[in-house]
Specification:
The chain has 5 helices and 5 strands, in the order βααβαβαββα. The chain has 149 residues and is an alpha/beta fold. Strand 3, helix 4 and strand 4 form a beta-alpha-beta unit. 3-dehydroshikimate binds next to loops.
């Protein structure tokens, strides 16, 4: 049992369909494969890896991370561009936050160009594909380390 606080890796709507969903944009990797990669990259540190299509549930998980977590990696998917409620929740988190997108949202349709979450995220990663998730895990470890110095 690790005494390290967990990294919360939170995924928003439609990401449960990865592997089948617009593979030309999101690739063919499934969310469970991504979860495995994240746990491996996290090493000793526990990971809470979750996905929901519900804005309410995502916000409740951010509240849980506020009380229990060391860091948040969040792919809010479409809620990135619509949810002030999610932004308000993330503002309460005092650890590092990485906003993560599989695709480069800035190369896509204009509806994907304005992120509320970026107004509070420590870092934004976009366009690395599914293999970017374990990179984000290693990056958040560096940010946790920086935060603790
Ligand atoms: C995933 C989604 O579901 C979209 O709504 C975002 C993001 C992009 C991604 O690239 O991971 O716009």
């Amino acid at each position: 049992m690790s005494d390290l606080k967990p990294i919360y890796i939170l995924n928003g709507p439609n990401l449960n369909r990865l592997g089948k969903r617009e593979p030309e944009i999101y690739g063919s990797t499934t969310l469970s494969e991504i979860e495995e990669w994240c746990r491996e990259a996290a090493g000793e540190r526990p990971v809470e890896f979750r996905q929901t299509n519900s804005e309410e549930r995502l916000i409740e998980w951010v509240h849980e991370a506020i009380d229990e977590g060391a860091a948040i990696i969040i792919n809010p998917a479409a809620f990135t561009f619509t949810s002030i409620a999610l932004l308000d929740a993330l503002k309460m988190f005092d650890g590092p936050i990485i906003e993560f997108h599989i695709s480069n949202v800035h190369k896509r349709e204009p509806i994907y160009h304005r992120s509320y979450v970026s107004m509070t995220a420590t870092s934004v990663m976009a366009g690395l594909g599914a293999k970017g998730y374990p990179v984000a895990v290693r990056a958040i470890e560096m940010l946790i380390e920086q935060n603790s110095n």
